[in-house]
UniProtKB/TrEMBL annotation, chain A:
Its EC number is 2.7.11.22. This is cyclin-dependent kinase. It comes from Actinomortierella ambigua. CDD domains: STKc_CDC2L1 (cd07843). Residues 25-38, 51-62 have a biased composition (Basic and acidic residues). One of its GO terms (biological process) is regulation of mitotic cell cycle. InterPro entries: CDK (IPR050108), CDK11/PITSLRE_STKc (IPR045267), Kinase-like_dom_sf (IPR011009), Prot_kinase_dom (IPR000719), Ser/Thr_kinase_AS (IPR008271). The lineage of its organism: Eukaryota, Fungi, Fungi incertae sedis, Mucoromycota, Mortierellomycotina. One of its GO terms (cellular component) is nucleus. Residues 162-446 form the Protein kinase domain.
TrEMBL record, chain B:
Pfam families: Cyclin_N. It comes from Actinomortierella ambigua. Gene3D superfamilies: Cyclin-like. One of its GO terms (molecular function) is cyclin-dependent protein serine/threonine kinase regulator activity. This is Cyclin-like domain-containing protein. Residues 43-147, 160-244 form the Cyclin-like domain.
Amino acid sequence: MDSKWARLSDDEDDRQRKRRKEKHERKSREASHSREGSHTPQPSLRLESGGGREESKLRMVMDARGAAGGRRGASYQAASVTTSPAATAAAATLNTAGTTTTLVPPALQPPSLSSSSPSAPLSSSSSSAAAGSTSSALYTVRRAASSSQHPVLSQCRSVENYEKLNRISEGTYGVVYRARDRETGDIVALKKLKLDQEKNGFPITSLREIYTLLLAKHPHIVNVREIVVGDTLTQIFIVMDFIEHDLKELMSEMPQPFLQSEVKTLMLQLLSATELLHENWILHRDLKTSNLLLNNRGEIKVADFGLARRYGEPQGVMTQPVVTLWYRAPELLLGSKHYTTAVDMWSIGCIFGELVNNEPLMPGRGEADQLERMFKLLGMPTETTWPGFSKLPFAHHVPKFYQPNNNLRSRFPYLTENGLDLMNRMLAFDPAKRITAEEALHHPYFSEGPAPKHPSMFPTWPSKGERTGKRATSPSAPVAHHGQGDDDELGAGGGLFNVASQESTGFRLRV
Amino acid sequence: MAAESKLSLQNALLTLEQLQHTPSMQDGFTEQQEDDMRQMGCHLIQSAGILLKLPQVAMATAQILFQRFFYQASLRKFAVRDISMGSIFLAAKVEECPCRMRDLVNVVDYLCKTFKRLPTIEPLALYGHEFYEMKNAAVIAEMQILKKLGFNVHVQLPYGIMVNYLKVLNLTDHPTIPQRAWGYLNDGLRTNVYICYQPPTIACSVVWLAAREAGVPLPTNPPWWEVLDASLEDVENIAGHIKTLYYRSLPISTLPLRIEQVEPWLVSQGQ
């Protein structure tokens, strides 16, 4: 076998290279190169054993293959290919093949090529039938058609392609502007990343944000159009669709809470977006009403992936202080280093409560206060309701009071039994027992009356983003260790009663 | 055009135009020279990754980012050493296994000295000028990579797919094939196949190649690669590319690592 490589002499190198390039140019990029009919065998002339002096190595490979195949054909064993019915069928027909025949479905052979090319017998694939001009022309055409299937390499465009209109807000991670695309006239949101004092290169948190946003495409996740750069390397902007409202600011100006039918629609949208994230091994880690945008067509868009990250199995240790305090799950408050998608579900539970009552469910003033509010509302967890609870790092710091009752009903007197059940499942202390996004989507709450309101029936409100102004105040997520390349190993410092981390636990008002 | 084509789980691939007229070739490099420089960069990345104890996925991602970068920029403007450092630094973040800047700079400095056959006993001064220069170069290179690639740093790798294919073909227990195929995947990073083909096709190709060399017959009626949605032409082409790596030893000590070495080198090559 090795001899086929040894046959390459030096002077063949150049020709080979040329050949290689040609091959490259003609290679097909279509993964789904339609092969229906390839299992209705139609042997074509494949073999030219001991074929003429082929110049290119690749041709020699094919020759060698042909010759070897011809000798060995009869002894081919049917491998147990079990992936698909097609594969099984393939395996079943193997033993009957006396000689190696390559199957070329007639439909795939471009008629002009198969008739005109002398080298057709050598090739197995229609696109490589000939090196002549016909085939390259054909190839170019096909590539042009298929090139849209794959992302191509392209540089960042300049921010000059957008015309800044006004500043919308300034968060922990950067300023957001409203801008107009000079080409299309679309109104977009430009989020400028803060990259001022980065000692460790591009912050991993921003990288995660961009990365997850680019990967997570969903009707209810804010759409990132592209990343553009300014004049210097430190000016990076994320271009997103402009969405009129965020839920927080909207709810603060609504005279009464959302209707049940509206809550259901919003929750379904939020849950389906979360389901997609979790399916793709992405944790959002900062779900809250101010990160949920709402457009005038009644559609929620999950935004601000500044804390999002991918996670895997087995799980590594992840940063401890994540998620805005009011929406932070108990296992995080108690210092668990291994957490799961359940932390997002807890946040969704809090959002659910906030949507129903139009006020934050548990607006704690600090980590200890947050825990106390939890226990007062939901009852103290025990080893039976939450196995492993007492082993958590900060469990022995928990305030000593015994309040076994779940008081959720008193907070939501008008919620149906099913609604209350769903909320209780989302706010289950034990993360293992907490409902998942997928399960929640099938909860009876969403199928009982009143039915979810169709998004197009949602009321509209004047947009705040178009005027400059301060946003409703709400606490922000804990500041990630920006600029520390390995922020996830620094989690140990953050904790409930750790004096050193006090400053990161309290409020942070949005400017 | 950029917006919708960029965002995808699939790897970014080159267009024909990008492949034929690389920025370096437009800048006076020959194809051979460019290939050598690319191979050296990948060699540097792989070696540094091993010394830094990074997982192979990070090294693979770094090499693919490096390869992609030089289809967007010329070797005359960006030094192989700097972009290699930037790629490792960035890939380590993308793969969630960040490496320390100091370690990276020290390792790359050590390797560069080895490449040039210089004595390597003396490590970089702790707070020396050279250290800061390299560190800055790495940070700038990282930004340049992000910018030139439009922040599309998502890389799909064929390793997992290849293992699945081996399982499907009952080859997992073969004494040489899995290791050989794995090795071909690693070596293939030094070629441009990863930016010309999607991972499943590459996985098919290395299994095909390893099985050939072990003399193990695989189903051909219908051909197994067609069942796995790859065409023989692509499979052979990739195999050919990877194999050519072994027919030329890289003149590593003469190749320019830093930007100021490029011009003299090009001149000396011209003679």
